[in-house]
Amino acid sequence: MPVAVEALLATGARAEAGAVVEEAAGALAERGAPAVSAALDLARGLLAAAGGGPGAVEAFTLARDRWQDIGRPYEAARADERIAAALAAVDRTRAAERMAAAERVYLGLGATTDTARCRKLRRDLDLGGIGSPGRRGYGKQLSPRERQVAELLAQGAANQDIAQALFLSPRTVEHHVANVLHKLGTGRAGTAQALARAEAEAGEVSDDGPAPGPSSFPGSDR
């Protein structure tokens, strides 16, 4: 069921994905099997995450706990990975902890493909390395990846443009955009001015110009 929900969400069919979850919840209500309940929680988390709702982390956590209780470490790690992605924009320390936990499980299981995916997502989200509580040194300043996103936002790039320019997933871009706007204290329309002001305040603007980053996005004439 989570696979079907994820496939529907990938095509933008959120209403249909919601219908699948509701139908499954009704059909499985009487069964009560832990694995079935975990799959349903995971599907609910996917649906909540797609809608930007606050219930994603809770649903993914329920799924992870159920998988752990029945001795399914791989599935529990996948849920932890999703928890980390959902938390990245709001609680980077917890997100880093959950991502590191997932990576450790993958390493222990010899799941090389999953380990590689987890590491890529960790880098994309600027969550630091395994065993690390995250990159805390940036504080209110933009991380290198956030700086790239901010520069594209300042050019008027949409999230899809940013995803293509930086080879990131749309969900990852959403996290970065949220972080950038929060740190700069502005909306999308004011990104250019806020970025210039932040650079000036940090003493980052020099005769050589700002730090290197993407100079344009697909379709831009700037």
What does this entry look like structurally?
The protein is mostly helical and 222 residues long. The protein is 67% helix and 0% strand. The chain has eleven helices and no strands. Helix 4 (55-69) packs antiparallel against helix 5 and helix 6 packs antiparallel against helix 7. It is globular and about 60 Å long. It starts with a helix and ends in a 20-residue tail after the last helix. Residues 131-137 and 204-212 have low confidence and may be disordered.
Helix fraction bin? 55-70%
Count of helix runs: 11
Main sheet specs: none
SSE order, one letter for each helix or strand:
HHHHHHHHHHH
Shape: globular
Termini Cα gap: 45 Å
Uncertain segments: 131-137, 204-212
| Overall mean confidence score, pLDDT | 79
Structural class assignment:
mainly alpha
In percent, how much strand structure appears in the residues? under 5%
Based on DSSP secondary structure assignment, what is the total number of beta strands? 0
Radius of gyration: 19 Å
